[in-house]
Specification:
There is one protein chain. It is built from 7 helices and 15 strands. The protein has 316 residues and is an alpha+beta fold. The chain folds into 2 domains: 23-135, Beta Barrel (Thrombin, subunit H), CATH 2.40.10; 142-274, Alpha-Beta Plaits.
Length: 316
């Protein structure tokens, strides 16, 4: 693992996450669907083959009979094979005796599958308002690596490296040491990795024009971070811990108030550097130990292999 840059990983998660949430699902075809009422209790399934319609268009499918579906209710229809492929619509009609269901598509962006799950305990007004906000053609997740933001371009996500430092408890450590190189045993690896463990904090400041926008974007971002813990791990960002702050507002741009809320990522990162183990510039365990005080010595080749007591001097 080379040098880790958590602030860049955070920006990637924000940009990629919103791109997936806002991707249109129109034209996706399947034969295995789940149907869930939004804002009410009730669900069903369907094996009808159809394509997710464009906004404003309708589709007809067959589901179970005797369900608690009525006209004008809102439903979320998702592919059971690919839950990111879904759409939200309004029930035009439902025949309780035959199971025929007609739904008019209202939204078909990927966020529609996720948002009702993220905001399960939120009022339906928040969900609908959030969907409309995200679907606005002018919506863009603007990210900045500083405190700067343009009040004319909202929302803004300011990514700030609050602090980072080499961990005082662990000091320097050696990763993937090629111990056999000290005994001059053939090594299949071309280098040896030296690294150190760092503590780090990255803060994301979410800025919006409206309070509700700030609340929902904060919770979406919190969900994205939790969902992407493996992404952090793969980038060498370990033991992530998330925390946040309440909403605040700034009046320096009066009469326009700017609302902001912070979410912080505390983590540990591994920064490593590779050294060659062959050739004139090779770094081996022997050369590392040789640079230490005389109280620390290396076993001779024979004893390193056999594991017997050292004969070249005292060990620390």
């Amino acid at each position: 693992m080379p040098i880790s840059a958590p602030e860049i990983t955070v920006e990637s998660i924000i940009q990629t996450g919103f791109a997936k949430l806002l991707a249109s699902n129109a034209g996706y075809a399947d034969t295995n669907w789940t149907i869930t009422l939004v804002g009410a209790v009730g669900s069903g399934t369907s094996s009808t083959s159809f394509t997710i319609p464009a906004v404003g268009a309708s589709t007809t499918l067959v589901t179970q009979t005797g369900l608690s579906f009525t006209a004008a209710q809102t439903v979320l229809i998702s592919s059971a094979n690919n839950p990111y492929k879904s759409f939200q619509g309004t029930i035009t009609s439902y025949n309780s005796g035959t199971g025929n269901l007609v739904v008019a598509c209202v939204y078909n962006i990927g966020a529609l599958y996720q948002l009702p799950l993220i905001f399960t305990d939120f009022p339906i007004a928040y969900i609908n308002e959030t969907i409309s906000y995200l679907q606005d053609p002018d919506f863009k997740a603007n990210t900045y690596f500083s405190y700067y933001f343009d009040p004319a371009q909202m929302p803004a996500f300011n990514i700030v490296l609050a602090n980072e430092a080499e961990s005082p408890s662990d000091r320097q450590m050696y990763l993937n040491d090629r111990v056999e190189s000290a005994a001059q045993i053939p090594n299949t690896q071309p280098n040896e990795s030296f690294g150190s463990d760092w503590t780090c904090s990255v803060t994301v400041i979410i800025r919006t024009e409206k309070m509700r926008q700030c609340i929902v974007l904060y919770n979406i971002l919190k969900w994205m971070f939790l969902k992407n813990r493996q992404t952090f791990e793969a980038a060498g960002i370990k033991t992530t811990r998330f925390s946040g702050s309440d909403i605040m507002y700034s009046s320096q741009d009066a009469p326009t108030f700017i609302f902001n809320r912070k979410i912080q990522v505390d983590c540990r990162i591994y920064n490593t550097v590779d050294y060659p183990v062959t050739g004139p510039t090779a770094t081996t365990i022997t050369s590392v130990v040789a640079s230490f005080p005389s109280e620390v010595t290396d076993l001779d080749i024979e004893n390193e292999v056999l594991g017997s007591a050292g004969t070249t001097g005292p060990l620390a």
